[in-house]
Structures are given as structure tokens and as C-alpha cells.
């Protein structure tokens, strides 16, 4: 729908815009000078957990992720709040903002203002601005045939948070998922600096498959995944079998459309790979010979360095998933 809405809109062409929305990249990039460019993104969403403080933290981590995915360092942020002031106590809003502020403090990002509106449904997030060297931008459209594909966090947050909503997720499973969602992608970004990274995207609302499709389409390549090697959060498969499936799974399937071939992949594994993520990991495309070394460095920072597939020259379809 958004692609149709944006079609044929007359956008001012500024030569300093290095990354716009043409290839569905994670953030926009605007050149300030030869050494510095501004990276900017905005993200906000409804609660995914019951605790307002944790929700605020997750929303902040999720908002920061797009800047890290571009290779940038976030510097300041503006908050975005929608809140039903006539239905919920001010203490709830305070805890959401406190959670967001603490996560931004951890990331050393200054919150310099924001905007709030009354709304029947809570929504919270940030517009984040950061800096990146114009020569070191990680786009989602530069993967090359022969690259390995690494994933830094396991999948399953959409399914697990749906289970939380319907009181089907155990406290232990929920806590593990929350810990992954709270983990900033900052140190993964730092580790990538020393490698010849070709392309990066963070895995969020479109799921692994949706974001991989954008990367493959933008790069003019085919991405081949090994479904059984994709890491999954504990408890996610059981909850999926119980029907705890967010609506975004089928929306993401429709988004990719005919640009994917599932070769012997179970419907359960398809659902997990299409599951919309919140504050998910990074999907990294880099030369095969460098992948193992980067994986070791990512694991040293508490991330996964799971190689889940590879990039090939385009052949018939942008995504192939093998069992």
C-alpha cells in the first residue's frame, strides 16, 4: 500500500541526499561535508509487552537500530508519544518515557524534545539522528554474489509477543525474548567497522524474508537461505503451533509475493522466517572468506554470528529458501 501511495510523488532532488526511500533502506542519509553525513530515521509502535518501562526501553532500542544498520552512530533523538490520557494514569506515561530515556542514556544519545498527542491507543518511539562517514555507509542494496549472509539475533519476537498478549507465553520465554529486544545493535555495528561489509539491513517489521527481499531486489541478486540453520528463540515454535501468529506474517508473505521459492520448507518454518520482529538483529552480507572471523567477533559481544545463507547472481527469483 505504501509503495502505491508514494508512486509518482514529486520529491525535491537534492544532490546531498545520499540515501533516500527509493530502495526501502533503513534510514535516510544526507551529506553535510566530505567527512560527515546525517543519518535519520523514525520508528514507533504499540506496546509489545505489559510493563510500560520495558516497553519504553524496547521502543528506544528499536528506533536506534536503523542508524546502526547504516553504519552510523546515533547522536540525538526526538520522542513520539500517542497516549490515552483520559483512560490511563500519568504514571504509565512516565514509566514509558523513563524506559526510553534509560535506553537512550545507555546508547549515549541525547533526547532533545519530542511531540505527543492524545490517542485511543498507546504508541511510542523516536526520530533518531546520527552521523556516518559518507564513504562508509552500509546500504541494503549492495550485496554481491559470493557473499555470506550472517544474522545477529534469533527470530521469533512477533510470535512470542503475540503469546504475551494472549497470556500464552511463559515468564521465562518472555524474559529471554525481552533480553534480545533490549540488546542494542551498537556493538555489532562497531565490530563490522573492521570488515569489508557489502550490505546490511536490520530485521524488523517485514521479517527476515521481507527485509532480505528488499536487499536482494535492491542489489539485483538472489539470496539463498538454509531454513534449518536460521536461529529461532526458544518457545517460538511451540507458540506458533498454538496459533500465536501475528497478522504481519501473512502481510509479509504478500509483500514478497512471487519473488520467493520455498523448496521443501515446512509451513511452521515459513511462518517464523516471515515473523515481524521488534528490535531484531542485523542481516549482514560480506565476503565468504571474512564471515567466520566476523562471526567470532560478534559472538564475543553476545550476538549470534550465524551464517544462514549466501548471495548468488540473480536467477529467476530474488529469494530461495532450502529446507
If you had to describe this structure to a student in words, what would you say it looks like?
The protein is α+β, with helices and mostly antiparallel strands and 323 residues long. It is built from 11 helices and 13 strands. The protein has helices spanning 2-6, 52-69, 90-106, 157-165, 171-182, 186-192, 207-219, 236-241, 248-256, 267-274, 288-300, and strands at residues 17-19, 28-31, 37-45, 73-83, 110-118, 123-132, 147-151, 199-202, 221-226, 260-263, 282-287, 306-313, 319-322. A hairpin with a 5-residue loop joins strand 2 and strand 3. Helix 2 packs parallel to helix 3 and helix 4 packs across helix 5. The protein is globular and about 55 Å long. The mean pLDDT is 96.
CATH homologous superfamily caption of the largest domain: PurM-like C-terminal domain
Share of helix, binned:
25-40%
CATH class of the largest domain: Alpha Beta
Number of strands: 13
| Architecture per CATH nomenclature, i.e. the level-2 architecture of the largest domain | Alpha-Beta Complex
Order of helices and strands: HEEEHEHEEEHHHEHEHHEHEHEE
Overall average pLDDT: 96
How much is the radius of gyration in Å?
19 Å
Strand residue content: 25-35%
- Briefly note the structural class of the backbone: alpha+beta
- Our count of domains comes out at 2
Amino acid at each position: 500500500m505504501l509503495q502505491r501511495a508514494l508512486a509518482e510523488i514529486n520529491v525535491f532532488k537534492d544532490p546531498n541526499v545520499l540515501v533516500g526511500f527509493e530502495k526501502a533502506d533503513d534510514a535516510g542519509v544526507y551529506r553535510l561535508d566530505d567527512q560527515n553525513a546525517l543519518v535519520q530515521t523514525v520508528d514507533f509502535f504499540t506496546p509489545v509487552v505489559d510493563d510500560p518501562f520495558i516497553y519504553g526501553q524496547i521502543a528506544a532500542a528499536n528506533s536506534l537500530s536503523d542508524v546502526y544498520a547504516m553504519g552510523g552512530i546515533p547522536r540525538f533523538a526526538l520522542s513520539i508519544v500517542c497516549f490515552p490520557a483520559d483512560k490511563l494514569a500519568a504514571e504509565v506515561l512516565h514509566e514509558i518515557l523513563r524506559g526510553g530515556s534509560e535506553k537512550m542514556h545507555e546508547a549515549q544519545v541525547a533526547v532533545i524534545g519530542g511531540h505527543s498527542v492524545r490517542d485511543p491507543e498507546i504508541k511510542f518511539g523516536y526520530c533518531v539522528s546520527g552521523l556516518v562517514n559518507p564513504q562508509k555507509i552500509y546500504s541494503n542494496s549492495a550485496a554481491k554474489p559470493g557473499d555470506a549472509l550472517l544474522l545477529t539475533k534469533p527470530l521469533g519476537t512477533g510470535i512470542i509477543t503475540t503469546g504475551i498478549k494472549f497470556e500464552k507465553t511463559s515468564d521465562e520465554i518472555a524474559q529471554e525474548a525481552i533480553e534480545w529486544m533490549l540488546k542494542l545493535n551498537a556493538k555489532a555495528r562497531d565490530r563490522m567497522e573492521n570488515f569489508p561489509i557489502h550490505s546490511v539491513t536490520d530485521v524488523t517489521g517485514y521479517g527476515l524474508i521481507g527485509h532480505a527481499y528488499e536487499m536482494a531486489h535492491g542489489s539485483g541478486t538472489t539470496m539463498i537461505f538454509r531454513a534449518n540453520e536460521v536461529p529461532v528463540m526458544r518457545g517460538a515454535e511451540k507458540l506458533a503451533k498454538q496459533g500465536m501468529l501475528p497478522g504481519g506474517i501473512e502481510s509479509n508473505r504478500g509483500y514478497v509475493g512471487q519473488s520467493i521459492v520455498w523448496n521443501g520448507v515446512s509451513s511452521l518454518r515459513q511462518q517464523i522466517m516471515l515473523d515481524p520482529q521488534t528490535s531484531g538483529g542485523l542481516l549482514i552480507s560480506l565476503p565468504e572468506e571474512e564471515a567466520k572471523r566476523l562471526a567470532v567477533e560478534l559472538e564475543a559481544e553476545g550476538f549470534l554470528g550465524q551464517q544462514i545463507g549466501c548471495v548468488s547472481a540473480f536467477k529467476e527469483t530474488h529469494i530461495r529458501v532450502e529446507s
